[in-house]
Amino acid sequence: MKRHNAAEVPVPVSYGGERDEKTGSKVDKMGGGAARRWRSGGCCSRLWLVLVVFATVTMLLRHRYDSGLGHGAAAVVRIEPVHRKVKPADRGGARPSFSDSGSAKPVTVDHKSATTDSSTGTESDGGGEPSSASSSLPAAAHPFSRALAAAGDKGDRCGGRYVYVQELPPRFNTDMVKNCVALFPWKDMCKFTANGGFGPPMSAGGGVFQETGWYNSDKYTVDIIFHERMRRYECLTGDPSLAAAVYVPFFAGLEVWRHLWGFNATARDAMALEVVDIITSRPEWRAMGGRDHFFTAGLITWDFRRLADGDAGWGSKLFSLPAIKNMTALVVEASPWHLNDAAIPFPTAFHPASDEAVFVWQDKVRRLERPWLFSFAGAARPGSAKSIRSELITQCRASSACSLMECRDGPSNKCGSAASYMRLFQSSTFCLQPQGDSYTRKSAFDAMLAGCIPVFFHPGTAYVQYTWHLPRNHADYSVYISEDDVRRNASIEERLRRISPAAVERMRETVISLIPAVVYAQPSSRLDTMKDAFDVAVDAIVDKVTRLRRDIVDGRGEEEKLEMYSWKYPLLREGQKVEDPHEWDSLFAFA
Ligand SMILES: *[C@@H]1O[C@H](CO)[C@@H](O)[C@H](O)[C@H]1NC(C)=O
Ligand SMILES: *[C@@H]1O[C@H](CO)[C@@H](O)[C@H](O)[C@H]1NC(C)=O
Ligand SMILES: *[C@@H]1O[C@H](CO)[C@@H](O)[C@H](O)[C@H]1NC(C)=O
Questions:
Q1: What spacing in Å lies between the alpha carbon of 489 and ligand 3's midpoint?
Q2: Domain shared by 395 and 342, yes or no
Q3: Which positions ≥6 away from 501 have C-beta within 8 Å?
Q4: Distance 323 CA to ligand 2 centre (A)
Q5: Which ligand does the CA of 21 lie closest to?
Q6: Among residues 228, 215, 246, which one has the least CA distance to residue 100?
Q7: Nearest-10 crossing angle of helices 27-39, 48-65
Q8: What is the arithmetic mean of pLDDT over 239-246?
């Protein structure tokens, strides 16, 4: 196992004043914000060690209580593109995109000119013969000229959407699934990694679900689900020069997950360093320094942002590695203060096989009777002074319009059963979604799937996270009541009763219309007329890379963004600047 050389990797060694190369802002502040998630209000760097221990305990509790698990991936980095490992044979026009041992045959699209000169790499080949649509671009001026030209090729249904899959040995992906018993120390995860990450099929649950398409899905299996979809993506290409984006099939989430507990920092980072070593030495990396590369890390971002260098720090360092900073990491909870991760929905129980299945479900939840005005499924956080959960529980108990499902450890835990919490959400108009130990909750997606209008108390729970998948105007599909208002004893019931029936109807209809975008459909039969969470994510990545490439071609260069404001960029309206005041500034301010 390779230990990275500290001199090679400019990441903060201490929780101190390391500067971020790009923004010049202090990394410790960002780290502090992140660490705050685990520290319940700790603020001082001096307390770091103590807090790290606390953080670890908190994480343990979170992972145990939610009966989900974190997974992890390790990360690491080599900084420079390394040439020594390049094997020309690795590239070639027509390599089927997936080399792992999967059963499905990858769909390979025919390319007009799939031959690239493997000795020169993408940097100089520019795609061989310029495609006819590229006449407006200087031929081969950029390694991605051909890919950009394909975007303008109306005759190519995949034009501008091709994805090239980087080749990795199966130990970086499918082997982890085969060896699922090693994923988590306290629970056998094999049942949840089965069925392409959907987990075991569920019966109709006494009418709560449909007969087919419902699974007992774990919330941290996005790595597998995404991979299963990607291997059947309709626009795979074996020709990197044609690709709109490069998918790296590294199961970063599962990797870190199996090393979160009881492993030292070296073990947690080992595979991350390896994967970076491999991908940065490939010719595809050089085209854009990895800015067109993406991968999944199906846990929350804090599992990959270890601050302390010692073994006491939580998680891996994956996301701080310079190479990874250039890539897009797909997580289920992103950092408000970093640009290299993007949040995609937690998996829910519904994995439809057809548009029809979605329509039938939407019809069902639209017509349901909802006896409860609002409901809450969850547990208090007695250890956290900042948590508003106990206030919500108190209010819910006191209201005849609220139904409470208290989650507790042990066999009597109703929250452990998808049928019981989905039944609750299906009989409620509004579903309360406070923060948990971190900002986000899988429950927000369960609620929307049930046609229940989510009530959020912190913008970090959804509004600044799932900006690809949810409408920008949060009032269209949700209610926002600030945590401060709850602490001031604002009545939830009264706030919700103030919303007119017509407005409720409109919001619910929007929620129902969002169902396809927040579920992961069956890989074998994707949806025809609607985009699921996977489609939305791939489109967004392709857009992001294409925009960046156009900026480079037009000489604008990459837009300089300040990491500390990463939460704010997607919220900006025309003409607004990121420094302009925002009502949520204080919520995302550094301590
Ligand atoms: C980390 O743990 C591994 C076993 O998981 C062990 O082989 C290695 O020596 C440890 N490294 C350090 C620096 O403690
Ligand atoms: C990250 O991208 C920048 C800009 O393309 C590039 O200069 C840098 O070398 C890349 N970093 C790595 C580790 O490849
Ligand atoms: C909060 O409001 C409820 C109902 O309005 C009231 O009964 C209760 O005493 C209030 N609690 C506090 C701490 O103000």
A1: 6
A2: no
A3: none
A4: 7
A5: 2
A6: 228
A7: 50
A8: 96
Is 333 in the same domain as 479?
no
Q: Residue 178 is encoded by which pair of tokens?
A: 């085969």
577 and 458 within one domain: no
Q: How many helices (H) and strands (E) does the chain have?
A: 19, 11
Domain count, the chain: 4
- Is 363 part of a structural domain of the chain? no
Q: Are 31 and 305 in contact (CB under 8 A)?
A: yes
Distances 488 to 92, 430, 499 between C-alpha atoms, Å: 63, 21, 20
The ligand minimizing its distance to the Cα of 489 is 3
pLDDT of residue 436 exceeding 70, the answer is yes
| Ligand 3 contact via 489 beta carbon (within 6 Å) | yes
Distances (CA, A) of 525 to 110, 226, 351, 514: 21, 14, 11, 20
Nearest CA to ligand 2 atom 12: 323
Are 476 and 577 members of one domain? no
Pair (577, 446) in one structural domain: no
Q: Residue 385: what residue type?
A: A
3-state DSSP of 410-449: CCCCHHHCHHHHHHHHHCEEEEEECCCCCCCCCHHHHHHH
Q: Give distance in angstroms: CA of 467 to centre of ligand 3.
A: 36
Find the ligand nearest to 261 CA.
Answer: 1
- Does residue 114 lie in a domain region? no
482: Cα separation from own chain's centroid:
24
For the CA of 285, the nearest atom of ligand 2:
14
Is 100 within the bounds of a domain?
no
Among the three residues 455, 487, 518, which one is the final residue of a domain in this structure? Answer: 518
CA dihedral of 31, 32, 38, 41, whole degrees rounded to 10? -170
**pLDDT tens track for 103-113:** 333 333 333 33
Ligand 1 atom closest to 263 (CA): 5
The amino acid at residue 435 is Q
Q: Is 266 touching ligand 3 by the criterion CB < 6 Å?
A: no
CA 402 to ligand 3 centroid distance, Å: 16
Task: With beta carbons less than 8 A apart as the criterion, state whether 336 and 570 touch.
Answer: no
CA angle (557, 561, 567) in 5-degree steps: 145
- Considering the domain architecture, whether residues 266 and 184 belong to the same structural domain is answered as yes
- Mutate-to-test residue for ligand 2 from 326, 553, 560, highest number of ligand atoms within 8 A of CB: 326
**Do 327 and 257 belong to one domain?**
yes
- Which residue in 526, 360, 344, 374 sits closest to 445, CA to CA? 344
Q: What is the pLDDT of residues 439-498, one digit of tens each?
A: 999 999 999 999 999 999 999 999 999 999 999 999 999 999 999 999 999 999 999 999
> Above 60 in pLDDT, residue 44?
no
- Domain of 504 in residue numbering reads as 370-518
Q: Which helix (H) or strand (E) holds 516?
A: helix 501-518
Q: Give residue ranges with CB within 6 A of ligand 1.
A: 263-264, 266-267
CATH number at 483 reads 3.40.50.2000
Distance 260 CA to ligand 1 centre (A): 14
Distance CA(188)–CA(183), nearest Å, equals 8
Beta-bridge partners for 431: 375, 454
> Is 498 contained in some domain?
yes
Do residues 205 and 318 share a domain? yes
